[in-house]
Amino acid sequence: MRAIRGATTITENTAEEIYKATSELFQTILLENGIQDAEELISVIITVTEDVTAAFPARAVRETKGYELVPVMGMQEIKVPGAPLKCIRLMVQVISDKKLTEMKHVYLHDAVRLRPDLSRKK
Predict the structure, then answer these.
(1) Domains and CATH numbers, the chain
(2) N or C, where is the chain less crowded by C-beta within 10 Å?
(3) Cα separation, 3 vs 35, whole angstroms
């Protein structure tokens, strides 16, 4: 079992933007890690900063075709001074024999500053 981290940010606290950003992040995590089947997933944990309130990001994961039955849990992130605002974080737990160094974590938009060491190079 392994966990894949990811984070993204939104510019406005709207349901449409929350779903779009969460879907983009989830799809990118799946693609970057070669995950093609929901049976490879154990669960997805989502946290949001206190300024993300217009919708539940978990809906975007549950509405991903083929991934409707994956357990998803959402909660609020702790408030840390200087941390990115309007931030959505995912921890995707997968069944995998890959080494830790082989897992591809995904940080998009302003969230790249959370883990520049793990962010994809452009």
Answers:
(1) 2-113 (3.30.1330.40)
(2) C
(3) 13
